Amino acid sequence: MVLLDIFDPKAPPRPIGIDLGTTNSIVAHMRDERPVALTTCDGTALLPSVVYYGDHGNVLVGASAKSYASLHPERTLASVKRFMGRGADDLETTRLAAHRLAPATTPDEAKVVRFDVGGRTVTPVEVSAEILKSLKQSALDQLGTVGGAVITVPAYFDDAQRQATKDAGRLAGLEVLRLLNEPTAAALAYGLDKRQNGLFAVYDLGGGTFDITLLRLEDGVFQVKSTGGDSALGGDDMDRRIAEEMLDAMGASEAAARTPEIVALVLGAARSAKHGLTDALEVTVELPKRGGGTIVYGIRRPHFDELIEPLLERTGRACRRALRDAGMEPSELDGVILVGGSTRVPRVRSFVEETFGKVPLADIDPDLVVAYGAAVQAQLLADSSDEVLLLDVLPLSLGVETMGGGVDKVLPRNTTIPAGARSTFTTYADNQTGFEIHVVQGERELAKDCRSLARFTLKGIPPMPAGMARLEITFHVDENNLLKIEAKELTTGVCQEIEVKPSYGLTDDQVEAMLLDALDHGEEDFEARRLADAKVEGSRMALATQKALAADADLLSADERARVEAALSELRRAVQGATHVGSVQRCIDALDDATHEWAGRRMNRAIQSAIGGRSVEAIGESVAHARGVEAHLLEHGALPVKES
């Protein structure tokens, strides 16, 4: 029997919270000041995040779609959350799975994963929209009207993944009030339910994503201290560990034997075995054998624990790093909150206890707690309430690539959001009328070691001498953790707001590895950055000197010119081949020493040229301009060059 809310057809729209999960999705709302999960089309709170595309355009969602997984595996899509915002060449797409990817025929198609579901192709955004439509319809059936929705996302989702989630909501006809980080949502539900203050860790291990968040709850203020995780790690990976053993036992080790039907069958059996091991010490499964007949595959819990231990250790590294980022010890925590269906695995719970030194809290259903928090936040936003203040943080630094390949970090990781910051740059070449801006995300000192988020071109800048333009780049991250960028040339006032169009290519594992790499390669990164910056400075100085020789070489004696040209040649060789910053810096100092007196003569000539027949005020302006030009020629280079 399904219990329905009694609703007034004239009542205002009811806000809802949605946990759009990898394995299951949930919709919830507030009833009598408490969050309640609504019944889905399957008659339960959990809607399997599975979509089936039929021969005649019909689309099924949930358990009915899941029933087609073994009959039509290529038309039945599950765990698409792992593909949100990903490119077609993402390594994640090569994992053991029954779906079939559509080949990319154009560069634009390569930017987005596309599934071939028989006669048509669909993107992860479209698949997710079908799930959201089903949840919205369930809410309409029980509430009568639906207002805005808060949709949760993993804390470690990047800009592309968040934007894809927001697009799916819009495609489903929902007004997306906010994207809320899943661990923050869980803490929101827990904190309001238990009325507790303190410092908590939220360990969120779902079907396809992992997040660890440390936050402080204090009288309605939820302040995130640090966050980490992996958006390509979850219960699905546990299933694959078992599935690989099953395939070997079936005699299907070769790729040719792993048809979509066999893979779908084995993944389903592996998931059932994993669920069975939650309560039992041993599980057996009957499987078809290659060539005919059947086999009985058995797995004991200790062996399963061994299989998943490397996965758990990956979560442990993220937990330790989050503690280090927050500057705290596990003993300082008041509790550890478990979130996500994968935290039901006994070894996961014991691992969490070992990592943090305390028994985790799981008295709120870990499958539902995120949706509860989303419902709470949706109601608060609909009421414009300031009862709860959410202070979230950036998971990774955001910056701009500078000349030489370095990174200017405009917004460092763990910056509280919403947040904004700006940085000023200048040009490298004369008469430059456009600027290439490369936005990156990560902790390394060189852009090549960070994740590329976007590339922009700012056009329409009037031609000016090198170093005269001043480009101010402003980053703004909103409450949904989405990045917007504005670029303004301060000399002329030319301003453009740039729409972020993320570029793809790096996997989430690589993004996750950036934090560890930043620690492992900190010293060498720092030296590489210093060398790159020194070479940029050397190139700028060499260019300015060459221009000065072309204009004012007559102010040099023969010996002085020989000395300047020798120092210039040495500097150019150092810029081209030096491997240590000291070598470049010595050449810069030598050229500076060789041109010091000559620079004074050039300044005097510029002033005398400006004085003839002009007023005192005009002379003053000319002198100031001459000094400014000289300073820029000697000190500045090209965009992207950080202005000193």
Structure, explained:
The chain has 15 helices and 28 strands. It has 644 residues and is of the alpha+beta class. The relative contact order is 0.10. The strands form 7 sheets. Strands 1, 2, 3, 4, 10 and 11 form a 6-stranded mixed β-sheet that branches. Strands 17-12-13-14-18-21 form a 6-stranded mixed β-sheet, sandwiched between helices. The chain has a 5-stranded antiparallel β-sheet with strand order 27-26-25-22-28, with no helix packed on it. It starts with 13 loop residues before the first strand and ends with a strand. The radius of gyration is 30 Å and the shape is elongated. Helix 12 packs antiparallel against helix 13 (558-577). A hairpin with a 5-residue loop joins strand 15 and strand 16.
Descriptive key words:
644 residues; alpha+beta; 6-stranded mixed sheet; disordered N terminus
Short overview:
The chain is of the alpha+beta class and 644 residues long.
Q: DSSP strand (E) fraction?
A: 15-25%
- The number of helical runs is 15
**SS-derived structural category:** alpha+beta
Q: How many whole angstroms does the radius of gyration measure? A: 30 Å
The span between the termini is 70 Å
State the shape. Answer: elongated
User: Which segments are poorly predicted (pLDDT under 50) over 5 or more consecutive residues?
Assistant: 1-7, 501-512, 621-640
Question: How many beta-strand segments?
Answer: 28
List the helices and strands and how they pair.
Blueprint (H helix, E strand, L loop, with lengths): L13 E6 L4 E8 L2 E4 L9 E2 L1 E4 L5 E3 L1 H4 L9 E3 L28 H4 L4 E2 L4 E2 L1 H20 L2 E8 L5 H13 L4 E6 H13 L3 E8 L4 E9 L2 E10 L4 H15 L10 H17 L5 E7 L5 E7 H26 L8 E5 L6 H11 L12 H14 L6 E5 L4 E4 L5 E5 L4 E2 L1 E8 L7 E8 L9 E9 L10 E8 L5 E7 L5 E4 L9 H13 L1 H31 L5 H20 L3 H31 L4 H20 L5 E2 L2
Parallel strand pairs: 1-10, 10-11, 12-17, 14-18
Antiparallel strand pairs: 1-2, 2-3, 2-4, 5-6, 5-7, 8-9, 12-13, 13-14, 15-16, 18-21, 19-20, 19-23, 22-25, 22-28, 23-24, 25-26, 26-27
